[in-house]
Amino acid sequence: MSEGTIAPARTSLLELARLFGRLGTTAFGGPAAHIAMMRDEVVRRRGWLTDERFLDLLGAANLIPGPNSTELAIHIGWARRRWAGLVVAGASFILPAALLTGALAWAYVRFGRLPEVGWLLWGVKPVVLAVVAQAIWNLARTAARTRLLRVVTLAAVVAAAVGVNEIAVLLAGGAITAAARAWRSTRGAPLKQLLPVAPLAAGAAPAVGLSALFWTFVKIGSLLFGSGYVLLAFLRADLVQRLHWLTEGQLIDSVAAGQITPGPVFTTATFVGYLVAGPGGALVATLGIFLPAFVFVALSGPLVPKLRASPTAGAFLDGVNAASLALMAVVAAQLAHAAIVDVPTAIMAAVSAVVLVRYAPNASWLVLAGAAVGLGAHALGWVR
To answer: Which one, of 51, 53, 41, 10, lies nearest residue 304 by Cα?
Structure first.
């Protein structure tokens, strides 16, 4: 697989800011949905990356700690405009979600509860499911293009479905394909040039304060692999059990706020920071949890083309990409269970899939249309 090409025209920082700002405002549904919408924009609509290059960046994002979809946005920014693009793409994707989550935190502190937005998710989730399914189908042609990669993908689906750790699934997929490549080329010679990923750790100060809050979330952002459920476990261990900054109820409300807003779920940190230390706390907690993602991408981004250039390391990356696709497929199955709750949502998912295949609209507008349908259903009393 080739490294992929980048469109010859130089992308402006304003264009990066507009694209990722819009995605940060409309990308509901979690990392799998964010990734699908990014592919729609940067591969299909703009031609900035090939599917091969997109999968390489996705695989690299999956191998480092932190919010995967945010790190993919940062990787894309790096691919288009290096350091400036890295900052602009990442910040533009994070900022809308952080502002919305901060507004929810203000309302929560003032009124003592989160607003009822079940109608929003009722309308959005079936559409998001169709967008994710289409992205998986299209990426599968690249990620699972050989018999070995198809076997790795299916094995990774099974492993992820039964609860095997996500990083273990990714590394096993990479190791299998790298071993197969090395065996074919050297008849069983030892593997070489595989680069392990070592997450950085940062200590947390013991008392409440902006500095303590910042370093606590730097530590979480530096160590956390996996889904929003893993984030919940980290936050509970640190903020409820060890530091006693939040109650169990406040923690659950904080995670809910991160899930019902578009963009990265890690903006849960914004909500927590506001509860603990007001607007300043919201700012430093947000900076703390996302800062490691920028550092990790800055360190790993330049290595991706070098990995692709090495036959054995490139085969390892192929396996990671196949396993990444499998993880997306498992998340899509879980999303289907949560999204298809009645006949109208089943119809919405089917119609969205047909519209995507037949007319290929911008996925962001399709998600907004789903939100509008949810609003209409709420106004008619069909959903709360």
So the answer is: 53
